[in-house]
Amino acid sequence: MGAAAARKGAELISKTLKEKGSASIILATGASQFEMLGELVKAEVDWSKVTVFHLDEYIGIPDTHPASFRKYLKERFADLVSPAAFYAIDGETDPEGTCTRLGAIIGKQAIDVAFVGIGENAHLAFNDPPADFDTTEPFIVVELDEACRRQQLGEGWFPSLQAVPVKAISMSVRQILKSKAIICTVPDARKAEAVRKAVEGEVSPEAPASILQGHPFTWLYLDRESSSLLRV
């Protein structure tokens, strides 16, 4: 599943590079992206022509923290392929200023491929339910709900629920939807109900990932467990 998602993403990036000489992408993090990223860095892509944006980050933890998503992407991607630029989200100081700065940068880019996942509560990036489908700001400060924080605890990133931050910086839903193509990778049985809501439920802020139903070029990669509650 992760390998298939990486192949499709690499194909789309390479096609873009042939057409216009450069590409811009968005990368997600978390346990759901381990396999996909592990395969993506092996792809025959000229990463020196690819600009990378970071999807979300906790507020208040340093980039040395085991749960830091900028640490995750630096170690698992940026340090391995040396992209043209890597715009990591710094949630440690001045979150509002970070949102403004990165928003100005991404606002000048056409995003070619976004690699995303779906949370156990059907969140998209850190846009927990009820997600803001209306804001036009590219990056926003959000509060993490308990289900989201319990997911981070369950994946082993933090020693206790109290240690999981309650706020984060997230790319907004509208900004994600601006991507020309979206690769969504969702493994594990614990995501099955969220997948059902996202794929077969109504499009609703209560199931943020359901908004992907309206994106014309989204590829959804599931395994047997995560797809187990789908009717088809």
Q: Shape from CA axes?
A: globular
* Cα gyration radius (Å): 16 Å
Q: What is the CATH domain class?
A: Alpha Beta
Question: In angstroms, what separates the terminal alpha carbons?
Answer: 18 Å
For the record, the count of structural domains works out to 1
- The number of helical segments is 7
Low-pLDDT regions: none
Helix vs. strand class: alpha/beta
Strand count = 9
Fill in the CATH topology: Rossmann fold
Order of adjacent strands in the largest pleated sheet: 4-2-1-5-8-9
SSE ordering? HEHEEHEHEEHEHEHE
Helix content: 25-40%
The appropriate CATH architecture is: 3-Layer(aba) Sandwich
Q: How much of the polypeptide forms β-strand, as a percent range?
A: 15-25%
Give the biggest beta sheet. 6 strands, parallel
User: Mean pLDDT, as a whole number?
Assistant: 96
Describe this structure in words.
The chain has 232 residues and is an alpha/beta fold. The protein has one domain: Rossmann fold (3-Layer(aba) Sandwich). The protein is 32% helix and 18% strand. The chain has helices spanning 2-20, 34-40, 69-81, 95-106, 146-154, 173-177, 192-200, and strands at residues 23-27, 50-54, 56-58, 85-87, 113-116, 139-143, 167-171, 181-186, 218-222. The strands form 2 sheets. It has a 6-stranded parallel β-sheet with strand order 4-2-1-5-8-9, with helices on one face. It starts with a helix and ends in a 10-residue tail after the last strand.
